[in-house]
Structure formats: structure tokens, C-alpha cells
Specification:
By secondary structure, the protein is α+β, with helices and mostly antiparallel strands. It has helices at about 10-20, 25-30, 55-70, 85-115, 170-180, 240, 290-295, 300-335, 340-360, 365-380, 380-400, 410-420, 425-435, 440-455, 485-495, and strands spanning about 35-40, 45-50, 140-145, 160-165, 185-190, 200-205, 215-225, 225-230, 235, 250-255, 270-285, 460-465, 475.
Length: about 500
């Protein structure tokens, strides 16, 4: 059936505003004689057909007319004195809308209480398409996405490994160099050929497996690192492949295409790429003088080194916690298989991207680090969404079992903590979080963390040695490979 973005309650409110009459309390609470047929319509989806008998419709009309007749303003008659036939004729459309609204609201409320369907989102109806017939019952149908049903797995005594990484002077040196590079100045490279870390301006030509041109990116500018990512693919080993290349030189590499490529035949394919070097630049580190240290709010080099060290310590703690979280969820999902509504997964993919990017920001990652990760997040959005939804439902059930709750006080404390780490005001942090994912997203993350903490209280934890991973050596460019789609494939995808 067709659907509308207006929910039943919203449509009802419009009707009520129009006639300035709230339904009587008895109208809402009275149990209706409904005929409800519920059938499966897919994974976690129910199809409902609701039939309201004529007797209920007539009774609702009588009650609505009675209420309206008491206060209706009809020219030539005192309030409450207008003949019933005139009231019916004058306000028929208005009364019909109110009756329909009251019946729909009461029906949905009664179904919710009696059948305990546990909808994931509020049912949506095309209110205008539902009509009250002149005679006989009124029927309407809808699909409802419901929560998956599963047994809560045993989450007591899980065995997990906690990575313990020791911070070394070498780690601090590497990350300090990255910090200074990020605040350096890009200047022309007057001598020498391409080296890792240089900035390259190049023409990049993508070829099909037979060597025919697919698309060309002119004057692309990127930081030469181990891997170059674009929106629907990656060029691994580009730094090594271009090392030693001179201006005007062309080298051939290979690109691995992702699942977001328009042409189904090329999804996951490895294709040739030609890179023509046009220009080279390098990064010049800032001078470590008083002016520079003042600009970053630090006193001197030792202060900067200490700040980098503290950042790395927080990163170690964050990665340690993520590792424990991931192990717990992996174990629980492995023994708790369940399906999700496909429509829900599709709707949530965009939200997943926003949430994961927001998490990276809260972890203190730089804009370049986030940008490098975002292309991968988008490429894996479906799988990430599927997992995050299952994780949310599973941990939510455990939260209910453990009576774990979160509220505004928890959110306020979290915002203060983020503000302290990012050197922002709590007000600014709150505004940013609401823009990124809304207050509910933050509360959900706090709830999940509390559940993981509760599970860890009874877990068997083994400490294992780990290394601090260097910053991902990846450069990302804002580019999408455009490839033609065969006519037959395009037609088939549009039909599906």
C-alpha cells in the first residue's frame, strides 16, 4: 500500500486543530470491536489488516455529532439548538475526518496493547487514502517493522583479551613528526624526484581490464602515502610505485574498486591506472619558536612533547576499550543469530556514517585521519549498519535485563568529559553532537558503554602485549570513479 511521511498521530493532530475539538476521554479509552489479521511480510515485518465494523463507525459518528451539536455555531440558532439534520449536513466532512482520526488512533493504540508487536518505528499510513464507506465496515492495511525476537545469550564469564601497549620514545617521536607535518607549509620541491611524504599533482587515468580508458582525473593533488583512497576504490602501494618518479614521467599502477561502483561487472575488480606526474611539492615544518608554541597554546618543545604523549595514552586507552567491546559483541552475536527488516537497514545507513564519523571526532582524530577513514566507512556502510543495529538491539535487551538506564545527567557528564578532552565549551560540544547525530545518539552510546562495563565485571580478562599502531598511512581524495553501466544492467537495477 502507499505510505506517507505523516504518521497517524500527526494527521490526527491536524484534524483536531481544524475543528478545535479534542476527542472525549471515553472515545479514546473505549475498547473497539476490531477484526485484526496479522501475517508475516518479511524479516521482522508484519502485515496488518484491520477491519472496523459498521456498528463502531456509527457509534463514533453519534458521539462526535453529540459533542459537536452542543457547541456548534450555526447562523439563526443558539448554541446547542441547531437541528441534528442541519448539523450533519453542515459539518459532515469535518465530522467524518474527526471520526476517521479517532478510530485510527484508538485502533492503533488498542492493537499495540493487545498484540505487543513491539514496532521499531511508528507505523506510517496514507491517511488521505483511507475512507469511511457509506455503508459496511472500514478497513485499512499497513506494514509494521517489529523488533526481532531472540533469547538473551549468556553474557557472564566471557573470556576476552585486553591489549596492553607500552608507550616508547620512538612512538612519541613518530607522532610528534606527524603533528608538525600537519602544521607545516607546502612549498615547491625544486630538486629531486617524488618521495614518500611529498605532495603530487598528477593526471590519473583509469583503464578497464582490457586497457581502454574509463575515466580521467586531471590535476589531482594528493599527499604521497602508502595508499590513495577515493570514494569507490583504492590504489594500494602508490607511494612505493611513484617513488623516484620525475616530473613528466608516467607510471602504471592498479586500483581495487569497491562495491559502490555503478557498473556491477567492475565491483571488486582490479583495473590498471596510469599516473602522469605534473608537479611536486614538499612539506616544510614550522619553526619551533615562541610564536608557534603560543599559536598552539603550549609553552615550549617539552610541553608539546608531553601533550603528544598524553594524546597517545588516551589513544591507547580508547583502542583497548574498543578491542574489549568488539570481542564481547562478536561473541554474543555469534550465538544470537537474528534478522532485521531490510527497509530499516537501508534507512539507517546514512545515520551509521554520521555516527561513526562523530565517534572518530570524539576520539580526538585529526581531520586528515577522519577523512582517510570516511571513504572506508562509506564503502562498508551496509555491513556496519547491520552490525550496529544488531549490537544496539542485543545490548539494549541486556540493559533491560540488568535494569541499566541513562538520562540527561549521564549526557551532561559525557559532554563535560568531551569538552575537557577537546578544549571546547560544553555548550559548543552539545551543539556539535546534536548536529552530528542528535541527543539520542549520545545516550545510546552511553548506554552501550554501561552495558559493556557491566559485562566486563564478570568477564575473564587476559592481558596480552600489543604495539601502538602508527597513524594510518593513507591519503583520501574527493573523487568518484564514473564508469558506464551496460543498458541491460541499468534496466535490471532500476526494476529491482
Amino acid at each position: 500500500m502507499s505510505t506517507s511521511e505523516s504518521e497517524v498521530n500527526e494527521s490526527a493532530a491536524v484534524v483536531e486543530d481544524a475543528d478545535q475539538a479534542e476527542p472525549a476521554e471515553s472515545e479514546v479509552k473505549r475498547k473497539l470491536d476490531l477484526e485484526v489479521a496479522i501475517t508475516d511480510a518479511g524479516p521482522c515485518k508484519k502485515h496488518l489488516k484491520i477491519t472496523i465494523p459498521r456498528s463502531e463507525i456509527d457509534l463514533q459518528f453519534e458521539e462526535s455529532l453529540e459533542s459537536l451539536q452542543k457547541d456548534a455555531a450555526v447562523p439563526g440558532f443558539r448554541p446547542g439548538r441547531a437541528p441534528r439534520q442541519l448539523i450533519v449536513k453542515r459539518f459532515k466532512k469535518q465530522v467524518s475526518q474527526q471520526v476517521k482520526s479517532n478510530l485510527l488512533m484508538s485502533s492503533l493504540d488498542q492493537i499495540d496493547k493487545e498484540y505487543k508487536l513491539e514496532p521499531i518505528v511508528q507505523p506510517r499510513l496514507d491517511i488521505e487514502a483511507i475512507e469511511i464507506p457509506e455503508s459496511g465496515p472500514m478497513s485499512f492495511e499497513m506494514d509494521v517493522e517489529v523488533r526481532p525476537q531472540f533469547e538473551i545469550p549468556n553474557y557472564k564469564g566471557l573470556k576476552v583479551k585486553r591489549p596492553i601497549a607500552e608507550l616508547t620514545e620512538k612512538d612519541i617521536d613518530e607522532h610528534l613528526n606527524q603533528f608538525l607535518e600537519g602544521r607545516g607549509t607546502i612549498v615547491p620541491k625544486l630538486e629531486g624526484n617524488a618521495e614518500m611524504g611529498d605532495y603530487v599533482t598528477a593526471d590519473v587515468t583509469f583503464l578497464d581490464p582490457l586497457g581502454e580508458p574509463l575515466d580521467e582525473l586531471k590535476e589531482a593533488q594528493f599527499h604521497l602515502r602508502s595508499e590513495l583512497r577515493f570514494q569507490n576504490g583504492t590504489i594500494a602501494g602508490i607511494g612505493t610505485a611513484l617513488a623516484g618518479a620525475a616530473r613528466g614521467e608516467t607510471r602504471e599502477l592498479h586500483a581495487k574498486l569497491g562495491s559502490a561502483v555503478a557498473n556491477p561487472e567492475l565491483r571488486g575488480a582490479t583495473i590498471p591506472v596510469k599516473v602522469l606526474i605534473n608537479d611536486l611539492k614538499r612539506v616544510r615544518h614550522p619553526e619551533l619558536n615562541e610564536s608557534f608554541f603560543n599559536s598552539i597554546g603550549l609553552k615550549d618543545y617539552d610541553d608539546l612533547r608531553e601533550a603528544v604523549s598524553e594524546t597517545l595514552k588516551r589513544k591507547i586507552q580508547s583502542e583497548q576499550r574498543q578491542a574489549l567491546h568488539r570481542q564481547i559483541v562478536d561473541q554474543l552475536l555469534a550465538v544470537t543469530p537474528f534478522e532485521l527488516p531490510t527497509d530499516l537497514v537501508k534507512r539507517e545507513e546514512k545515520t551509521t556514517i554520521q555516527r561513526l564519523v562523530a565517534q572518530l571526532k570524539r576520539q580526538g582524530m585529526t581531520d586528515n585521519e577522519i577523512k582517510a577513514s570516511e571513504a572506508q566507512i562509506r564503502a562498508n556502510a551496509h555491513e556496519s549498519t547491520l552490525r550496529s543495529l544488531k549490537e544496539l538491539l542485543l545490548l539494549g535487551r541486556i540493559a533491560d535485563s540488568e535494569k541499566i538506564e541513562v538520562g540527561e545527567d549521564d549526557a551532561a557528564l559525557e559532554i563535560e568529559s568531551i569538552a575537557a578532552r577537546t578544549d571546547e565549551s560544553p555548550r559548543r560540544v552539545r551543539a556539535r553532537l546534536e548536529k552530528e547525530g542528535g541527543p539520542d545518539s549520545l545516550l545510546t552510546q552511553i548506554l552501550e558503554r554501561k552495558v559493556i562495563d557491566r559485562i566486563l565485571e564478570d568477564a575473564v580478562i587476559e592481558d596480552v602485549e600489543a604495539k601502538i599502531e602508527p597513524q594510518e598511512d593513507v591519503e583520501t581524495i574527493d573523487y568518484t570513479l564514473e564508469v558506464p553501466v551496460p543498458a541491460a544492467e541499468a534496466e535490471a537495477e532500476s526494476e529491482s
